[in-house]
């Protein structure tokens, strides 16, 4: 049995807890942090690890690199480091550390792996006043100047969908234009003579402008929600690609070891290495796609492109909205009454019916044309709602299947971890089950989001 590289660690799925003393139950970094203009780089001998969005680094090694003296107190399982006037105390399993005797809350408790203490990289960033960034593919820690993100508190960076929508509306050009259109149409209506033949049409334009402001509000909210949810899915996709890269990386290491003792051919080795390179490119692409969506959301929020927002809400969907035929017909009637476009066409029919400046024949033609436009749009609108109902029914069936598949995948992963702990399978076997579980979770998240967005359009089909 070949040893798995320490660069690769396993990130456990939902419902499976991480033990601080079991190194092989955590998985490979799901992102490569950008290393721009580092002041210095530290090549680690022990690999850092990535768990639950946080990077854990070998504490003693980095402290020594920073020029600190390091002491280990075995009876209390505490690392004590001194550099100049700075005193740092970190205890295994504790949720906090002490810097110059002042309590500092940790993102994750320090853990003991292979006799080495690992702690969140952010602790050293805060202690020594520099931003540290780990690259899992070179196993180097870059020391960077503190970024502008320190200007924002955790509360300022945390966004629910509701908060994101509220902030986006404050910065929406679409809403600004809608408000300007209302003022423009109101002015035209007020300036028209009381007996002007154009006054009914101008009033209609003014009322329609007000309705379109409501539509602009709803469209802005929907766009923000879609972008927000897109980020969540791409975060999950990045994690899936990280696991896939971890598997490919280990398979390549095993292939290299076998090649050295003549167990596989050069072609087999090249095929394995090419698979690893593809997995790495996929991971890099997933990270790039995630960053694009983050920049898009920041633009909607009126934030700088590199603003590091934290998403609070997770995808969820539980209420079925598809209807029986009778309920569907009632929904179509209700939505038809609320549709801004259909309201406009109904009002246009009334205007044509009230006109007195046309001959009877021309007036009849104008009314029929207006009524035909209304009927055509109503029929198209009804078909749109029926299609939505069919889509919701299909998505809910797929969602139920995905739920069962995820449950099965998580059970298989739990069984594989138990086998691994008993020495019956390799870590690579566990990682493959983890990949299957995360792929199932990704599919379920995608379906939940599709259902949620379809439900939004079902409730307001004119968006």
From TrEMBL:
Q: Which InterPro entries match?
A: Cu_amine_oxidase-like_N, Mao_N_sf
Instruction: Give the Copper amine oxidase-like N-terminal domain ranges.
Output: 41-143
Q: Entry's Gene3D superfamilies?
A: Copper amine oxidase-like, N-terminal domain, Outer membrane efflux proteins (OEP)
Q: Name one GO molecular function term.
A: efflux transmembrane transporter activity
Alphabetical UniProt keywords: Coiled coil
- Indicate whether Coiled coil appears among the record's keywords: yes
SUPFAM superfamilies listed in its UniProt record: Copper amine oxidase, domain N, Outer membrane efflux proteins (OEP)
Q: Which stretches are annotated as coiled coil? A: 161-195, 266-303, 385-457
Give a yes or no for keyword Heme in this entry. Answer: no
* Protein name, as recorded: Copper amine oxidase-like N-terminal domain-containing protein
């Amino acid at each position: 049995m070949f040893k798995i590289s320490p660069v690769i660690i396993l990130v456990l799925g939902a419902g499976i807890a991480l033990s601080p003393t079991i190194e092989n139950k955590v998985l490979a970094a799901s992102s490569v942090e950008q290393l721009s203009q580092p002041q210095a780089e530290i090549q680690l001998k022990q690999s850092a690890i990535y768990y639950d969005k946080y990077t854990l680094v070998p504490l003693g090694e980095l402290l020594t690199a920073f020029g600190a003296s390091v002491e280990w107190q075995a009876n209390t399982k505490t690392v004590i480091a001194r550099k100049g006037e700075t005193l740092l105390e970190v205890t295994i399993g504790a949720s906090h550390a002490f810097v110059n005797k002042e309590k500092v809350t940790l993102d994750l408790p320090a853990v003991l792996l292979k006799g080495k203490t690992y702690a969140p990289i952010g602790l050293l960033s805060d202690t020594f006043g520099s931003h540290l960034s780990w690259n899992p593919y070179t196993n180097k820690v870059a020391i960077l100047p503190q970024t502008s993100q320190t200007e924002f508190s955790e509360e300022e960076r945390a966004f629910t969908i509701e908060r994101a929508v509220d902030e986006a509306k404050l910065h929406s050009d679409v809403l600004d234009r809608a408000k300007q259109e209302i003022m423009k149409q109101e002015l035209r209506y007020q300036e028209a003579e009381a007996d002007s033949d154009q006054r009914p049409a101008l009033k209609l334009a003014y009322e329609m402008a007000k309705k379109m402001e409501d539509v602009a509000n709803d469209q802005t909210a929907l766009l923000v929600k879609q972008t927000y949810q897109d980020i969540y899915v791409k975060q999950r996709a990045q994690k899936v690609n990280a696991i896939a890269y971890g598997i490919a990386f280990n398979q390549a290491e095993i292939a290299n070891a076998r090649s050295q003792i003549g167990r596989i051919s050069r072609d087999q080795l090249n095929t394995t290495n090419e698979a690893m390179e593809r997995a790495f490119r996929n991971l890099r692409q997933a990270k790039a796609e995630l960053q694009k969506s983050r920049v898009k959301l920041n633009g909607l929020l009126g934030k700088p492109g590199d603003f590091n927002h934290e998403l609070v809400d997770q995808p969820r969907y539980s209420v079925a909205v598809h209807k029986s035929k009778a309920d569907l017909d009632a929904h179509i009637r209700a939505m038809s009454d609320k549709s801004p476009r259909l309201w406009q066409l109904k009002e246009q029919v009334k205007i044509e019916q009230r006109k007195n400046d046309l001959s009877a024949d021309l007036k009849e033609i104008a009314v029929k044309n207006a009524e035909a436009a209304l009927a055509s749009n109503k029929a198209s609108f009804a078909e749109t709602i029926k299609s939505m109902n069919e889509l919701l029914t299909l998505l809910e069936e797929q969602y139920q299947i995905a739920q069962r598949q995820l449950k099965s995948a998580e059970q298989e992963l739990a069984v594989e971890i138990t086998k691994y702990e008993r020495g019956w399978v390799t870590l690579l076997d566990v990682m493959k089950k983890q990949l299957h579980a995360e792929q199932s979770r990704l599919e379920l998240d995608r379906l939940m989001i599709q259902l949620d967005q379809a439900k939004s359009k079902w409730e307001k089909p004119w968006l």
